[in-house]
Amino acid sequence: MKRLLRPLFGHVARRRWVHLILGGALAMPYFLVGTVIVGAVQGSEDVFTTFPLQLASFAVALPLAALTSPFPLTRPMSVAAVRALCGVDGDGLADGPARTRAAKGRCAAWFTLHLGLGGIVSGMTLSLPPFAAVLIVIPVFPGLRDMRRDLLQVLQEPWALALAPVAGAMMLVVLAACAAGCGALLARCAPALLGPGPEDRLAAAEARAADLAVRNRLARELHDSVGHALSAVTLQASAARRVLDSDPEFVREALAAIEDTTRRTVGELDAVLGVLRADDTPGKAPAPTLAADLDGLLRRTRASGAHITVGIEVDSESLPPMISREAYRIVQEGLSNALKHAGAGGQVPITVQLVAAEGQLEITVENPMEAAPAAPGARPGGGHGLRGIADRARLLGGITHAGPVDGVWRLSVRLPMKGPEGPEGREGPEGREGPEGSEGSV
Fold first, then answer.
1. Per the record, which residues fall in region Disordered (predicted)?
2. What's 80-122 look like in SS3?
């Protein structure tokens, strides 16, 4: 029995019934305006007591509701009510006001349908239960038959009086069935009328793409900053431990480099994580650039024992801030990649070249490819360093190549010093990472 009555009186049906009654409440102001219009046209003051005039007033009210539906809060409020009361999956509904003509038309259709069905069900809810209650109890209270003799003369017959409770109960069931059917109809129409249109899906896709771009940028910053710092600190500590007794001066330099590296990395980490804080408060440490910290980067890397040869044929002070910042990260990642293959002693020669030619900044980082034991801080299988470099270069309109060339591992990046040429940048055939590039990533 409960299974049969659940679709009519279950919690889903009850909540949808409440949603319909809310629609009837929203329809009431329009209905009152409709009674004024119908009364003025008919020249009658008995609109509220004449059923045909009430129907005419309701018919006038629905177009008035449709005309006011473009109000910006109509769709957000309707969607909130549907999600809370109709049991509709929220992912199938649009957020925010309707902006296009098609979306406004669908919203108007929903608003009119909700108020129309809500007004009908609300009227039935107000009128049928009292009448049904009278029918159910009238056999027990004969005084009710005397009071309603003018309306219930048929109940004076014994057979009609006996069937009155059944008729009253059936009225309540019919009312519940109408409410459940109208509620199910609204729940079925909600995704079509309140769901996202092409413009909403495009806006959501753009928002997701922007969020993904921010996440990828943060991941690159964390990888390049923290990854390089950990690799350098590990090699510096390893080198200092080996010469602790024989070369105290080198140990002091290594410890000073470790202190400087960790302090700067903590500041950069705070700046990156500041973007993720709830209050969106940016960190205090500015992003490093070639002009600000290239010498410090080279000094801290040399403290691990690496032999770095640098050739600079560009005025780093004249570079655009974005190019200078991304070029710094590319050099940093190139050094980290070389340190991975430094071996246990960390004694690897590294060549860094920065050249400005034909409006482009060419960055080259080379290190030998002789077989050597893995560095203490190296991670098995590599990481995502070269992929991050390729992403940075592509977003600036540059190209990247990484792989073995004449017995050395060469990372070559070219960046246009005027920024990207288009929203997606450009990438030549040699700029795509192949299997060689993946093997050398950190």
1. 416-442
2. HHHHHHCCCCHHHCCCCCCCCHHHHHHHHHHHHHHHHHHHHHH
**Domain-wise residue ranges, the chain:** 2-196, 204-439
Could you tell me which of 53, 59, 65, 55 has the C-alpha nearest to residue 26? 65
Is residue 411 helix, strand or coil? strand
User: What is the mean pLDDT for each group of 10 consecutive residues in the chain (442 residues)?
Assistant: 78 93 94 91 81 90 92 91 88 85 92 95 92 83 58 62 86 93 94 84 75 73 71 76 80 81 75 59 64 85 82 88 88 83 64 90 86 42 69 86 86 81 38 36 36
Distance CA 189, CA 210 (A): 32
Q: Distance between CA atoms of 243 and 237, rounded to whole angstroms?
A: 10
Residue type, 348: V
Q: Please, how many CA atoms are within 13 Å of residue 139, restricted to the half-sphere of its CB?
A: 13
Query: What CATH fold (topology level) applies to the domain 204-439?
Result: Heat Shock Protein 90 (3.30.565)
